[in-house]
Design a protein that fits this description.
This protein is α+β, with helices and mostly antiparallel strands and 315 residues long. The chain has seven helices and 17 strands.
């Protein structure tokens, strides 16, 4: 995932657990930390209440429970659903929000901290229901899921929270802000003279001294998707949280991590998730989208494209 290193004039940094991962907030002005923190905490609470698959009282859980029956959803859930359906459209269904039952079938049926890392129970992959079957009226916020379909917004909701929180926190703080949620990061407000220095690593909690390149972010978002952190086993199968919707199973192991820079964190995480699923087709797909990217094969071989700096280049 993505770890952070500060620019020459080190920003003020706050780290705390959130959404089953780690939230990191960086602000340029020490006096801005508290207003930015308050905004971030409120945004995280709101996105959890709207989009958590593991809270029975979340809007997502209620929508899943009502599959087959129309429901009206709130504005934040509507925004998150719009982002998820847009991701599905942009990737031609490679990133599909109807993978909820697929993840459950693979054993990801509870918060990741509660998932048993080793279990002998067999698995039977369940293909995604298909995003095109979702009936959604954005104007009235009316949603109807096909019976048997379940949503999981993991590929976009956390990234959306990073984008929203960075924008709102920068306005509240009146200075440059960087928000990272489990390595999905977004920047807003004034950019430090030397930009935000970001270290790329397999794990978002890696220390600044960990192996990996450092890149400079001046706008938009950056996301890293990987198969090594949220991982578990069922019998002799190595599994993780990124699912191929067409099969309901994990994709063939090609990339260990994929990092992508884009106009915002949602687009970056959509692309990095799609690349893991696409496997060998990912470089051509990312190149066609002109997205700077760094892909690491399971053997550690690195592939970069579309302006991503070569290893050792600090750009």
């Amino acid at each position: 995932m993505t770890a952070l290193a500060g620019p020459a004039a080190a920003p003020v940094r706050l780290v705390f657990p959130a959404l089953g991962t780690t939230a990191v907030l960086l602000v340029e002005d020490p006096a801005a930390l508290e207003p930015a923190r308050a905004v971030l905490v409120a945004e995280l609470a709101a996105i959890d209440a709207a989009c958590s698959r593991f809270r029975p009282d979340s809007e997502l859980s209620r929508a899943n429970a009502a599959a087959g029956v129309p429901v009206t959803v709130g504005p934040l859930f509507a925004e998150a659903l719009d982002a998820a359906l847009r991701a599905a459209e942009l990737t031609d269904g490679v990133v599909d929000p109807t993978v909820g039952p697929s993840l459950v079938a693979l054993g990801y049926d509870r918060t990741f901290a509660s998932v048993r890392p080793e279990e002998v129970a067999p698995i039977s992959p369940v293909p995604a229901g298909g995003w095109r079957g979702v009936e959604w009226d954005a104007r009235t916020r009316r949603l109807r899921l096909p019976a048997g379909t379940g949503l999981d917004l993991g590929a976009t909701a956390k990234a959306l929270a990073a984008d929203r929180a960075a924008d709102l926190a920068a306005r509240a703080a009146g200075c440059g802000v960087l928000v990272s949620l489990g390595g999905d990061l977004s920047i807003a407000g004034a950019v430090p003279d030397q930009g935000w220095q970001v270290k790329i690593a397999d794990h978002h909690a890696a220390p600044p001294t960990a192996p990996g390149p450092v890149v400079t972010l001046r706008t938009g978002g950056l996301a890293t998707s990987g198969t090594t952190v949220r991982a578990w086993r069922r019998g002799d199968r190595a599994l993780h949280h990124i699912v191929d919707p067409s099969t309901g199973d994990v994709p063939a192991p090609v990339w260990r991590t994929v990092s992508v820079a884009a106009a915002n964190c949602v687009d970056a995480n959509t692309a990095s998730t799609a690349a893991i699923v696409l496997g060998e087709r990912a470089p051509a797909w990312l190149s066609a989208a002109a997205l700077p990217a760094r892909l690491v094969r399971t053997d550690g071989t690195v592939v970069t494209m579309s302006g991503w700096p070569t290893e050792g280049d600090p750009r």
